[in-house]
Amino acid sequence: MWSILKREVRNYVKKPLFWIGIAIIAVMIFQNVNPYLNIHYLEEGETIVNNYPETFRNGDVCEGYVPTEEWMRRKLWEEQVRKDLISEFKMDNASVQAEIDQISGMDIMTACKYLEKYNFHDTYWVYANTAYRKGTREEINSHIADKLENKTFSFYFSKKFADFAGMFMGFFATVLLSVLYIQDTRKNTYELLHTKPVHAGCYLLGKVGGGFAICLIALLILNLSFWILCSVSTKDQGFEVRLADFLWATCLYILPNMLMITSVYSLISLLWKSPLPAVPLLLLYIVYSNMGRRNTEGIYGYYGRPLAIMVRFPGGFFDTAPPPMALLNQSFLILAAIGIIFISTRIWKRRRVY
After folding, report:
1. What is the pLDDT of residues 201-235, one digit of tens each?
2. 214 or 193: whose pLDDT is higher?
3. In terms of pTM, does the model score above 0.90?
4. Can you give the three-state secondary structure of the chain, one letter per residue?
5. What is the pLDDT of residues 170-190, one digit of tens each?
């Protein structure tokens, strides 16, 4: 097993595609996380200038936004509803005030459903767009200080890193591992392997281990690179950056996905005697994993999917949180991958020539 694993690792690290792929992924991750590297305490007289609206549902602290207080969100929403009722339905002030009083005691979802009688089907999105507002220098600095009081800067940054690293590594692994079994599934080599006294478990674990190890090496390089980059970029601010945060996020949210991709390649390669059919299947798997859906309240967003091989962290920098049941899903992925490897060994044994 170990000899097969080491052989696969040596073969991959000798290929320019491996190193070029890591470089491309690093650039793509940097392009997406670069705004977060610029987060800092604003100095006296410093402001963040942009052409964005005063309130925005996807506002972030690096763009000068802070969370809007709940009472203010409700006030802003009711003011917009008031304007719409007057402009769209030509209602007088007394009638509008009666409707505002009617919904004032309702929660936001109930109030939105109530307003559907006026064909207002986007009132929730009006409310959603009040989630963040442009903050003053003091508000932005206070928001940063509050968030970093009990958490390290890398606690948040590592989640954004895992978001984009996991996505790009999914595509990279799909392309890179397509040649993992390409030599062994050629007719002459495949038949020869099945005449050798190679134990099925040792062979499959060696191949899966080799593919997984090469993904691990790529992720280790990326983790070290962005840990150094994050440390250097935030040094002047005194933000705490820990390598452990990067490694922990990678272990939780990326490695199970890499194991699943490698095991799928094993199964498909043995079923079809070629790894190539796995490429379109895995690409479809990635698309499925990255698709949004509606929650129980009918709100569209990214909430994760069963057995998804991608964990996304949408939202603002200081509000990054894994989708519901993400850790449970990652555990199921590991169990599913183990099951697939077991099935693959059974297929190998059935085709053994004694």
Report:
1. 677 788 889 889 999 999 999 999 999 999 999 99
2. 214
3. no
4. CHHHHHHHHHHHHCCHHHHHHHHHHHHHHHHHHHHHHCCCCCCCCCCCCCCCCCEECCCCHHHCEEECCHHHHHHHHHHHHHHHHHHHHCCCHHHHHHHHHHHCCCCHHHHHHHHHHHCCCCHHHHHHCCCEEECCHHHHHHHHHHHCCCCCHHHHHHHHHHHHHHHHHHHHHHHHHHHCCCCCCCHHHHHHHCCCCCCHHHHHHHHHHHHHHHHHHHHHHHHHHHHHHHHHHCHHHCCCCCHHHHHHHHHHHCHHHHHHHHHHHHHHHHHHCCCCCHHHHHHHHHHHHCCCEECCCCCEECCCCCCCCCCCCCCCHHHCCCCCCHHHHHHHHHHHHHHHHHHHHHHHHHCCCC
5. 999 999 988 776 665 555 455
